[in-house]
Amino acid sequence: MSIRLLLSGGTIDKHYKMYNGELMFEESHIREALEQGRCTADIVIQPVMLKDSLDMTEADRELIAQACRESAESRLVITHGTDTMVATAGVLARQGLGEARTIVLTGAMVPYIMKHSDALFNLGCAVMAVQCLSPGIYIAINGEVFSWDNVTKNLDLLRFEALN
Amino acid sequence: MSIRLLLSGGTIDKHYKMYNGELMFEESHIREALEQGRCTADIVIQPVMLKDSLDMTEADRELIAQACRESAESRLVITHGTDTMVATAGVLARQGLGEARTIVLTGAMVPYIMKHSDALFNLGCAVMAVQCLSPGIYIAINGEVFSWDNVTKNLDLLRFEALN
Amino acid sequence: MSIRLLLSGGTIDKHYKMYNGELMFEESHIREALEQGRCTADIVIQPVMLKDSLDMTEADRELIAQACRESAESRLVITHGTDTMVATAGVLARQGLGEARTIVLTGAMVPYIMKHSDALFNLGCAVMAVQCLSPGIYIAINGEVFSWDNVTKNLDLLRFEALN
Amino acid sequence: MSIRLLLSGGTIDKHYKMYNGELMFEESHIREALEQGRCTADIVIQPVMLKDSLDMTEADRELIAQACRESAESRLVITHGTDTMVATAGVLARQGLGEARTIVLTGAMVPYIMKHSDALFNLGCAVMAVQCLSPGIYIAINGEVFSWDNVTKNLDLLRFEALN
Question: Is C131 in the D-facing interface, judged by CB distances under 8 Å?
Answer without folding.
Answer: yes
